[in-house]
Amino acid sequence: MVKKADRKYGVVLDAGSSGTRVYIYRWVKNAVARQGAASLQTLPVLETKEKWTKKVHPGVSTFGDNPESVGPDHLKTLLKHALRHVPKEAVPETPIFLLATAGMRLLPDQKQKEILNNICSYIRSETDFSLPDCDSHVQVIPGETEGLYGWLAANYLLGGFDAPQDHDHGKGHHTYGFLDMGGASAQIAFAPNATEAEKHANDLTLLRLRTIDGTPQEHKVFVTTWLGFGANEARKRYVEDLEETYGIDGLLEMPDPCLPKGLKLTEEGELLSSSKEADHKRFLLGTGKFDECLRRTFPLLEKDVPCPDEPCLVHGVHVPAIDFEVNHFIGISEYWHTTHEIFEMGHKDKAYDFNTYQNRVRDFCEQDWAKIQEGVADKTWGGNVDEQTALEVCFKASWLINMLHDGIGIPRIGIENTNFSSHNGTKELLESSKEKGFLDPFQAVNEIKSTEVSWTLGKMVLYASADVPPAHENDLPVGFGSNVPGVPDDFQYPSGGILQDIKPSHPGSSSETESQSITDQIHDTLFHSDASHRLPGFIFFLLIVIIASFYLCGRDRRSRIYNYFISSPKSSRPPFSFLHKILYRGSKAGLNDRDLEDGTSSRLYDPTDFELGNLSASSSDDDLSVTPRPTSRSGVDKSSLSPQNSRRHLDRLASTVIDRTGLVVRTESRERLGGDTTATNGRSKSRSGSPTRLK
C-alpha cells in the first residue's frame, strides 16, 4: 500500500484556442517505485482520473485587451479545482505549468507577454503551487513542442517504450506516429524508418528519457506543425474563398456545400434568427452537397506552395517520407471528435473504417437542417451534441478527410468503393485491433487504457522521468533538443532553470559556462525581470548580506561598530567614518592584530606605539598587559590627536587580560616590522615558543 507521503503530483493547464483545461497527474516517488516495480526498465507510472480534469471557455487568448482579468475571470475556477484534488500537504512541492498553444501564438508578442505575466502573478498570489520560474512554467509553446509531447503521451500509453518487443512493426521500428488537430493548428510527429532518419538527421529532435532504475532512453523524432491548419482557422479561410467567389455587389446569398440543406449562417458562423434578418446582410446557405464540399476544401491544403526542402506534404512544409509499413498513426482531438461524436455515437460502434465513415458523413450532411435540429433535441447523437456541433461537423469532416489522405498521405482503406458497398467494417476492425495493437495506418482515439491521450500527459511523463536519479554520474540529462551529441544549446529541460543548474558535464560544456549562465539568470531576474516583487526582494537580499557581514566581521570589529553607534556622540563622528572602519579594518580607536602581523596596513599610528610591559619568567598570564606609549616617533603627543572613542578604547585595552598566545602574536609582529631590537629589561624579543619568523 503506497502512503500519501510517497506520492508526487503535477498540474498542467492546457491553454488552447477555444478554452483552458486543467489536468492533474500523480506518480509514486522514485525510491518507493523501485521497491515495488515488477521491472526496473520502465518509465515512471503516472495516473490521472476523469474527475481531476476540468475545462472552461473561452481561451486565454481572448483576454488580449483585458489581461488583468484572466486570473479572476478565467483561472480561478481551474485553480480551485486543482486545489480540491491535490492534497494540501503536497501543494508546495507540486509543480504547476500553464502552456498555451495556437490561440496565443496568433496574438502579438506584447499581448502574449501581458497575459502570461498576469497569469503567473495570479497563480502565485492565489496558490502555493511550485512555480519557481515564470518563463518556463507559464509560456506559449511552439507547435513542435506540443506535437512532441503528444507523441510521447501516445507511445507511453501504448507501451512501446517499456516493451518494444511487443510492438515490433518491422525494420526495427516499435513506436507509433502521432497526429493532432486543434482549432488553430495541426501537428505531426513520428520516428522515420532507419533510411529516412539517416537522410534527414538534421531535421530530427533528440528526446531523452530515464527509466526508474536510472537507465537513459533516446528517441529521434520528426515533428512539425501547420499553424492556420486547425479546423477553425481552415474554416475561416474557406469562408474567405466563398466570399471571393460569390461576394458580388447586391448578392446576399452564398451557397455553401459544407452545410446541411437549408441552414443559414452569417459570415461569422452564427445562426440567422429569422428570414427577415437574411434580407439585410450576406449569409451562407447550406446546400448539403458533401462531394462538392470535399472538392472545395482540397485547395486549402495549399499543395501548390513551393517546397524548398523536398519532400513536403502541406503548405510547402518539409516532412521526411513516411513509411506506412512501419509508421502507424494515432489521431486525437479533432480527429477523434469529428469522427466519433456524431458518426459513431449514433451507431453505437467504437471503431470504424473510412468507407463507413464517409458514408455516414454524406448521409448526415445531406439532410435538411430542420431534421437535424430534431435529432439534436431528441439526443440522437448523445447529450454532448448540440446545434453548434452539428452545424460545424460537415466542414470539419471534409477537412479531416482531405488532410489525412491528400495532405499526409494516409492510405484510403475502404474509401475507393464508397459508392458501391454498404458494408460496415467497424466490428471487424474493433476485433482485429485487439490483436494487432493499432497497426492500421490511422486510428482515431480519445483514450488508451482508460487514460485520455493528451499532450499534457507527455509533458508530465518527461518531468517525472527527469525526477529519477541517473544511474551514472556522467549520464546526460532528460529533455529534448537538436539531434546532436551531448547537450545542445537549444536543449529544453522538463522544469526549466532548476535542472539546468544541476545538469552533469558533457562534451563541449564547462563549469565556467554554466556559472556564467546562472549569473546571467540572476542579473536578468534582478534588472530585467517583469516580476512585480523584484525591487522589494532585492532590498531584502541586501539586508541579509549586511546582517551576515556584520556577524562574520569578527568580535572586535562588531564591538567597534556597536561603540560607534551607541557610545560615541554623533557630533564626534567624521563623515563616512563608518565606511572607513569597515573597509580599512581600523580606526583611531585602536589596533588590529592582523594588520600588525601583515605589516602592510596604512595607519595613523606606528606599530611601535605599543610596547610590552615588564615580563618575567615567573609572570602569570594575568600579569601581561599592553601599555600605550605617549608619543610617536615624531615626538607628537598622540593622545592629543586621538578622538574620544580612541582614548576610551586604549584605556580598555590596557586593562584587558591578554592570554599568552596574544603576547606571542604581538611580540612577533614587532620583530617583523623592524621595531626595537631590545625587549624590556633586556629580555629577548621573543620566546623560544614563538612562531617561525618570516625570512
UniProtKB/TrEMBL annotation:
<keyword id="KW-0067">ATP-binding</keyword>
<dbReference type="GO" id="GO:0004382">
    <property type="term" value="F:GDP phosphatase activity"/>
</dbReference>
<feature type="compositionally biased region" description="Polar residues">
    <location>
        <begin position="677"/>
        <end position="695"/>
    </location>
</feature>
<dbReference type="GO" id="GO:0005524">
    <property type="term" value="F:ATP binding"/>
</dbReference>
<dbReference type="GO" id="GO:0046036">
    <property type="term" value="P:CTP metabolic process"/>
</dbReference>
<keyword id="KW-0472">Membrane</keyword>
<keyword id="KW-0812">Transmembrane</keyword>
<keyword id="KW-1133">Transmembrane helix</keyword>
<dbReference type="GO" id="GO:0006256">
    <property type="term" value="P:UDP catabolic process"/>
</dbReference>
<dbReference type="GO" id="GO:0016020">
    <property type="term" value="C:membrane"/>
</dbReference>
<protein>
    <submittedName>
        <fullName>Golgi apyrase</fullName>
        <ecNumber>3.6.1.5</ecNumber>
    </submittedName>
</protein>
<dbReference type="GO" id="GO:0045134">
    <property type="term" value="F:UDP phosphatase activity"/>
</dbReference>
<feature type="binding site">
    <location>
        <begin position="183"/>
        <end position="187"/>
    </location>
    <ligand>
        <name>ATP</name>
    </ligand>
</feature>
<dbReference type="GO" id="GO:0017111">
    <property type="term" value="F:ribonucleoside triphosphate phosphatase activity"/>
</dbReference>
<feature type="compositionally biased region" description="Polar residues">
    <location>
        <begin position="628"/>
        <end position="645"/>
    </location>
</feature>
<dbReference type="InterPro" id="IPR000407">
    <property type="entry name" value="GDA1_CD39_NTPase"/>
</dbReference>
<keyword id="KW-0378">Hydrolase</keyword>
<feature type="active site" description="Proton acceptor">
    <location>
        <position position="146"/>
    </location>
</feature>
<dbReference type="GO" id="GO:0005794">
    <property type="term" value="C:Golgi apparatus"/>
</dbReference>
<dbReference type="GO" id="GO:0004050">
    <property type="term" value="F:apyrase activity"/>
</dbReference>
<comment type="similarity">
    <text>Belongs to the GDA1/CD39 NTPase family.</text>
</comment>
<dbReference type="Pfam" id="PF01150">
    <property type="entry name" value="GDA1_CD39"/>
</dbReference>
<feature type="transmembrane region" description="Helical">
    <location>
        <begin position="535"/>
        <end position="553"/>
    </location>
</feature>
<keyword id="KW-0547">Nucleotide-binding</keyword>
<feature type="region of interest" description="Disordered">
    <location>
        <begin position="613"/>
        <end position="695"/>
    </location>
</feature>
